[in-house]
Amino acid sequence: MTTKSAGRRDLLDRLIRAHRPTQLAASLHYNHMIECVRANSSLLSPRSFRQRSKKQQQRDTEKCVRAVARMAMFSDRMVRSPHNWVPNGDPIHSLSKHLFAKFDVPEFAHRAWFGGTAEVKILLDMVRGVSPRKAVANSGLNSRLTRKAAHCFANAPDRFGVANTIRWAQAVAFGASHSLATQIVIACNGFDYEELFWQELIRFLIYASNVKPEGRERSIVAPDSKEMREIANFVWRQKYLGASEVLGYRVHDNVPLQPEFSFRGRTLRTFRRHMRNWRSEIDIPMSTPIEVAMRNRVWSPSGIQQFSVSDGNVTWKIVEILESVQLRCEGGLMQHCVAVYESSCRSGRSSIWSLRKCVDSVERRVVTVEVWPASRRIVQAKAKCNADPTPHSMALIRRWARHNSLELQ
Fold first, then answer.
1. Which of 63, 329, 382, 408 is the most buried (most CB within 10 A)?
2. How many domains does the chain have?
3. 126: in domain
4. 365 has which bridge partners?
5. Are residues 220 and 268 in contact, defined by beta-carbon separation less than 8 angstroms?
6. pLDDT tens, residue by residue, 304-327
């Protein structure tokens, strides 16, 4: 045996040992299956590495070994023994069909072994004869299929894994062509949007790709794949990532900049304008994270206690704003002039607080409150666009005021 062959075999053996399940029964099935795969195919043979780079060979081999290990964990769901497996086509797909399939399922479904637990659950349900729609609903994925989408899912090409094929089927059901649906899935890959917003995003991208150059949109050009990716990334960062991740170093706000962002009422033209001008729209004039960090000012807390109360999956909290960037975000998103209070906050004359509603870890600003710490007085409370707070919001503010011995003016 040459030195290179010994090295490749050693790499294989280390990968196989590293992914061996800890449970005894699963470990025995795993060893069994590895032996069968090696005996019946070249998938885990050192010779299969010759045409690939070292990094690529390790990635591919680890992916296959991990898939075999996951199959071993579901030995109680196997309907055939691995001993009489005869490879046909892709070895992992072929082994999956042999071990688990009572009924034929689309080829892409066998990619589930490379995905998450929910995707494996969908595959194992479908090979037992469960309908795609019911299998997706019971999987734990944050996705649902209409009857039309379920039909598209069952007839989808073998291009994506199970989760992305669900998205592809939804896009086709909403009216996208197969090629456009593929573009949308590739553009949005890696972003875990909530289901309702995902459907809103699909509809917008379909509309944007089919926009007709007439009327107000006469000079509009449909987005290409690169711009679709930019749109998907932009809305993810605005709606789901904390301000500290978007704006950079020294910004300590985990609340998303626009948690209620929606495509409703937006045309492609207005959305592109919003992408260009979002910093000025929410009163953050800095153009780079470095500038944000340099211009951000932090001041000392007032000493007043924060407030939090939960009601089921809804949490209300009142938090103090202690940074200039947070203050600008508050003013821009609430559409009032609280940002001009920065000097008062830094001197200690005023303290600005934000009443926020948190539903399933998504925060929404509801009311901005100004307190004079020296006299311990709440001097004003304003909702969005300087509107008066609702009775429920005022009840929470009064409760917070009593807890901190604050006078409500």
1. 329
2. 3
3. no
4. 356
5. yes
6. 999 999 888 889 999 999 988 888
Last residue of some domain: 264, 295, 326? 295
User: Is the Cβ–Cβ distance between 158 and 168 less than 8 Å?
Assistant: no
Question: Is residue 45 pLDDT above 80, yes or no?
Answer: no
Q: For 244-256, how does the pLDDT look when each residue is reduced to its tens digit (9 = 90+)?
A: 777 665 556 677 8
Same domain, 311 and 403: yes
Q: Would 368 be classed as within a structural domain?
A: yes
Residue 169 lies inside a defined structural domain of this protein: no
Which of 123, 23, 14 is closest to 72 using CA atoms? 23
Task: Please give the residue range of the domain that contains residue 404.
Answer: 307-408
Count of C-beta atoms within a 10 Å radius of residue 409: 12
Checking 191-198 for CB contacts under 8 A at 24+ apart, the result is 191/232, 191/233, 191/236, 192/142, 193/235, 193/236, 193/240, 194/142, 195/142, 195/143, 195/144, 197/239, 197/262, 198/167, 198/170
In-domain check, residue 215: yes
HSE (side-chain half, CA atoms, 13 Å) at 221: 3
Asked which of 67, 100, 133 is the last residue of a domain, the reply is 100
Let me know: does 355 contact 366? Beta carbons within 8 Å.
yes
Q: Which residue type is seen at 69? A: A
Cα separation, 307 vs 336, in Å, equals: 23
The answer on pLDDT for 174 being more than 80 is yes
| Exposure of 290 in the CB half-sphere (CA atoms within 13 A) | 0
Based on the fold, state whether residues 246 and 335 are members of the same structural domain.
Answer: no
Query: DSSP character for 378?
Result: E
Map 330-356 to HEC letters.
HHHHHCCCHHHHHHHHHHCCCEEEEEE
For the record, the structure tokens of 114 come out as 């490379």
**What is the rounded distance in angstroms from the CA atom of residue 295 to the CA atom of residue 291?**
6
Residues 286 and 324 in one domain: no
- Shortest CA distance to 240 belongs to which of 360, 134, 114? 360
Do 258 and 323 fall within a single domain? no
Q: How far apart are CA 259 and CA 4, in angstroms?
A: 54
Instruction: Please tell me whether residues 228 and 289 are part of one structural domain.
Output: yes
- Separation of alpha carbons 257 and 260, rounded Å: 9
